[in-house]
Structure formats: C-alpha cells, structure tokens
Amino acid sequence: MQKALAIDALKNACRQELAAIEQASAAAQDETTNAETKQEGKYDTRAIEASYLARGQAVRVGALRQLTSWFDQLQARPCTEIQVGALFQIKGSADWLFMAPVGGSGVHLDGHRIKVISPASPLGKALAELETGDQATLCSPQGERSVTVSVVL
User: Fold this and answer.
1) Are 71 and 14 in contact (CB under 8 A)?
2) Of the candidates 99, 97, 96, 101, the residue with the CA atom closest to the CA atom of residue 69
3) Per-residue pLDDT tens over the stretch 50-59
C-alpha cells in the first residue's frame, strides 16, 4: 500500500463527503423555516425535529471542514508508531486503517478498504502509540480480543 496514494484518495473522499453533507445541511436548515414545518398543535414536533437535524448536520459540516483542511496540510511521512497520520493494518484483517483527528468514512484503493478512525474512538485509544508487532486487547460487545499490529506506514 502506498501511503501517498491512500492519503490522496482519503482527501478526495473527504471533499466529496463534505459537498454532500453541505447540501444536506442546507436542506435541513431550509426545512426549519419551511411553512409546512410550522407547528399545528401542542404535540406537533416537526419544527423541533427539523432544528435538531439541522444542528447535527451543521456539526458534521464543521468536523468535515476541519478534516479537509487537515488533509490539505498533511504530508505523507512514514510513521513507526500508530498516531494521527499513520496508515496501518492489523494482523488477520484485509482492511487498512488510517488515524485522523476526526473519524470518517473510508475508501477502496487497489482492492483494499481503508477505514478512517480517530484517536478518540475505542480502537484508536487501544492502538495509539503501538508499533509493528505490538499487541493490544480490545473490548467489544462480542467480548475481549487480542490484536497484533502487522504494519505501520
């Protein structure tokens, strides 16, 4: 896996996701002031629900703008441990993982899936600062499992 190509693919996917979420956010914002959303009775909560949706979309837009800006400044430097900017793989998994400041969706590249995780995620917390060959124990709904880092780029 070439790290520079992976970063470019993730950067482009982030831009596309941002454009889509910005459109959804604008639509949600429009819905909050739409005449059809106006409250018709004391139990009618359409306007409140629309405002919650608009707020959630706005938060996601902000996070994606931050992530896009971060990707624009990121340089594909090699990493020896799992940290923000590291591309890595866990033994026994065909997927690659990329640690970014904010989690997000992933991409397919050269027949492999690359998932974006954040240091705040349970997986990110468990794997932070590990190097190739290190092991970690993960707690999941299926119980505890041990994983080994197979490569860090």
Assistant:
1) yes
2) 101
3) 889 999 999 9
